[in-house]
Structures are given as C-alpha cells and as structure tokens.
Design brief:
The chain is an alpha/beta fold. Helix content is 36%, strand content 14%. The protein has helices at residues 64-74, 80-83, 116-121, 141-154, 167-178, 194-202, 214-228, 238-254, 271-286, 305-311, 339-348, 358-370, 377-391, 413-420, 447-456; strands spanning 23-28, 36-38, 53-58, 112-114, 128-131, 159-163, 182-188, 206-210, 231-232, 262-266, 294-300, 352-356, 401-405. The strands form three sheets. The chain has a six-stranded mixed sheet, with helices on both faces. The protein has a four-stranded parallel sheet with strand order 8-7-6-9, with helices on both faces. It is globular and about 75 Å long. The protein binds ligand F0G. Ligand F0G binds next to helix 5, helix 9 and helix 13.
Length: 458
C-alpha cells in the first residue's frame, strides 16, 4: 500500500484559478435545517435532522468568459488534471485543498453522438446522445468515483465500500486499485450482470454477494461503515455527486455553452439526477449557460417509486417499492436514497418523470444499437421515455434534446443475446418480443451454400 503522502498525480503541475478564494463546506440539504460542517467530515446524512448532505461553496469565482477560455485551453494540455474530463472543470467543484490527492484514470471525455435513426424512433427531428459508456470502466460512475476516491485519500481512509447494482462497484474497484485503497463491494446475489462483476474481480476488489436486494444491502452497509470505519462511496456520498456534475459541464462545453431544451436520463438511486440539477444550476448562476434545460427522468415500470410520487404531485409520503423488478438491473432500486434532491432538481428545472415497460426498454435499446452506438439496458430507458414523451406531446419533435447513455453496450451481453434470439423474459416470465431481433445463422463450411443463402436474402 502507498504511503499516505504519496501523490497520485505526481506529474501534474497544472494551475487552478482562485482556489484560495473559495470556501467549500458540507451543508444539510434540508431547507429547514441547512446545518453546516467542515468539508473534511465523514458524513452522508445530517447528524441533526437526517437529511442528505451536499457540498456548498462560498466566495468569489472567476467569471464565465475566463472559465470558458480556461476549460477550452486545457483541452490542449497533456497534464493529467487537464486531460481528465472531470478535473478539467475543477473550478466548478473546488472542494479540494491539494490536487496531489487526485486519483484519475482519464475519466469523462465522452462523446456527443448524433443518432438520426434513434431520433426518428423517438419521434424527434434530431437527437444527440452523450455516451457515458465511453468512460474508463464503461459507465458514468467514473465521473463521480474519481472525486470520491480522491476525497477518501485526502481523508486518509484506507477502506472504501459500496453496495451496487454493478456499475458503481466496477468503478469503485478500479479507482480504489489506482488509489491504493482497499475496495469492499456488496452486491445483490444473482442480480448483477457478469460484465460488471467481472470488472470488480479483475480490479482486485473483495466482493460479497448478499441474498437481499439493493435497498436492504445499503442499510446493511451503512451499519458496517459506522462499525468498522470504512468510507462509503455510494451516491449519497456528496463528493460522488460533485464529480457527476462534470457530465453536464462537459456536455455544455461540447455544445459551446448552448443549453439544450431537455436532458433525458434514467433514474435509479437518483444520484445522477441530483448531480445534473446541481451542476446546471451552478452553471446558470455563474452565467456559463443562459437557460436551464428541463430534466426528464425515466424509470423502469417495475422499479418506479419516483415516478409514482411525482405523478401524485409529490405530496404525502414517498412510497418505496418493496420488491423492485426490471431486467435493466442497473436501475432495479425500490428505495432511492437521493429522491429529495432529485425532486428538487426536477421541479426547479420544470422537468418530468416518466416510466417505461420492459418491452419498450428492450426495443429502444436495439434501436440505439442500430445507430452503431449501443448501450446497456438502463441507458435505453432514455430513448423509450423520449418516444413516450413525444407521443404525449410533452417533448416537441423540434426541440433540442440530449439523452445521456449511462453504460456501455458490453456491460450486459447476456441480455443482448437473449433479446436477439427471442429468449428474453421479463420478471414474472412474460416473454419480451424480439421486435428488432438479429439472429446469428449457423452455416456449413461451403461457399456455394453461403452464396446461395446471401442471394435468397441480400
Ligand atoms: N444507468 C446505469 C447504467 C446505472 O448503473 C445506474 C445506477 C443508473 C443508470 C441510475 O443512476 O442511481 O444515479 O439514478 N447504478 C447504480 C450502481 C445504482 O450501483 O451501479 P442513479
């Protein structure tokens, strides 16, 4: 294990503007409480009221024109801090006192891809995907994990832990390995795709599969974290949220700071929704963008407590789903931790929450594949949601929409194979139609026969 002082970015000499003039602190998210704590405290919930914790900044920051130029110039730099699509925007998440703590794998830098076929499937004139599956471990979690692992090193924590539907664990395992931290991973037994589990094993994490669902294991891990002093890197960790803001920072930078009308994303534990909203508000306050895009959060029908609450006008108790079900295992979450933050962000962006069926997710996913792009099932909820929202007139076909694909197509190959061979079954045994199926054909080692087959169906 590395010594406590060893730098993870030894070759970095990159400058940071005005970091001394900004103060970062932890603040309770609940408006009635807003208790404040030092940025170096280990907190996931407010000790006073139990509310979620967020990072808050005070003090002056560089103006919008200076920041835009700075971020653009850094794209020419080879310094690891500037190369990272997260730390490139460090003035917008200035919680760190010393950038030598940074653990980076060159995360972010994900593409914006136009997808005409998906656009027409979704009832749009045009549609752009921001593909977070192009990250080092293949999901958007890397944007947050670089910050979470960095804060763990800053706090001199040795062990980090998470419960995960798969992607968080793959990401945490990689960043823990890169940062000389011990990774402890808790997974719902039998409900994680092999691609994700394989990553955690390969990166050397200790993995524990528990016979319980995500929500139950999260409760278990919280008890353990307190008892044996491990640093939790689930998305209620406020530094994960800080890092995930960079997804929208980079998106706006790539669009020359022109905000779209809508940003569409899948919703599970709702950490990403919270991060996008916070990032967009902060950019708007700094004058980096001149309007707030509306957020559209899409959930899978069998795991849609946030949709249910929103559809009820967000009144009364938030009701969790006791037995969440969906083949999009990444968003198989019935009791999303970050719902209060996500609700605030969706409401303040005049956004919406939609839900989609298993069949809708599967077909949308195949359409994204046909664009030559591909994604994992949870990500495809975005296009399925867009199709519903244009059909109901909530999104107009000529609006400017960016959908965020959260995970790489190779995360869940089993699902793909089953869909295309007509053997995919939704929870409860309902068969998923292979609407856009593409079967592999077994042929003899015979040129005449193959040529004949190709003449039959060019
Ligand atoms: N898409 C993918 C591919 C995910 O892995 C997740 C969450 C989400 C969407 C939902 O994001 O939770 O911020 O609303 N995966 C978590 C995990 C829960 O453990 O990997 P969210």
């Amino acid at each position: 294990m590395a010594s406590e002082t060893q730098s993870r970015t030894p070759q970095s000499t990159a400058a940071t503007l005005n970091s001394a003039e900004v103060q970062a602190e932890l603040v309770c998210f609940e408006p009635a409480c807003r208790a404040r704590f030092a940025i170096t405290e280990v907190l996931y919930n407010c000790p006073k009221c139990g509310g979620l914790i967020e990072v808050n900044y005070t003090g002056s920051r560089p103006d919008a024109a200076t920041l835009r130029k700075l971020f653009r110039d850094r794209r020419l730099s080879n310094d690891p801090l500037d190369v990272s699509g997260v730390w490139r925007y460090r003035e917008l998440m200035p919680f760190l006192d010393d950038y030598r703590h940074v653990v980076t794998l060159g995360e972010g830098n994900t593409r914006m891809l136009d997808a005409p076929l998906a656009a027409s499937y979704g009832g749009m004139d045009r549609l752009t995907f921001k593909h977070q599956g192009f990250n080092p471990t293949g999901s958007f979690k890397d944007n947050g994990m670089t910050c979470g692992a960095t804060q763990a090193r800053r706090l001199k924590m040795r062990r980090v832990a998470c419960v995960s539907t798969g992607n968080t664990s793959a990401s945490m395992a990689a960043y823990a390995a890169a940062g000389d931290l011990e990774a402890l991973i808790f997974l719902p037994h039998g409900n994680i795709s092999f691609g994700k589990l394989a990553q955690a094993l390969e990166y050397g994490a200790r993995t524990f599969q528990v016979d319980a669902n995500f929500d139950q294991i999260l409760a278990l891990v919280r008890v353990l974290a307190e008892r044996i002093g491990i640093y939790l890197l689930n998305s209620m960790n406020p530094f994960r949220v800080e890092g995930q803001k960079s997804i929208v920072f980079e998106m706006m930078d790539q669009r020359d700071w022109r905000a779209p009308d809508w940003i569409v994303l899948p919703g599970g534990n709702l950490g990403n929704t919270s991060a996008f909203g916070k990032g967009l508000r902060e950019m708007y306050e700094l004058g980096l963008i001149d309007k707030m895009p509306r957020l559209a959060v899409i959930q899978a029908e069998g795991s849609a407590p946030f949709h249910e609450y929103f559809a009820r006008g967000a009144k009364g108790e938030f009701r969790s789903v006791e037995k969440p079900e969906t083949l999009a295992t990444a968003i198989r979450i019935g009791d999303p931790v970050s719902w209060p933050k996500a609700l605030y962000e969706v409401q303040s962006s005049k956004g919406v929450v939609e839900r989609v069926t298993e069949q809708e997710i599967a077909d949308a996913k195949a359409q994204i594949g046909r664009c030559g792009i591909g994604c994992e099932p949870a990500s495809a909820a975005t296009l399925a949601g867009i199709r519903k929202l244009t059909a109901s007139g909530v999104i107009r076909r000529d609006e400017d929409v960016v959908a965020v694909l959260t995970g790489n197509v190779l995360k869940d190959p089993d699902y793909i194979y089953r869909y295309h061979t007509g053997t995919l079954e939704a929870p409860g045994g309902v068969k998923i139609q292979s609407t856009y199926g593409n079967q592999s054909v077994v042929v003899p080692n015979d040129a005449d026969r193959i040529a004949e087959l190709l003449r039959e169906r060019p």
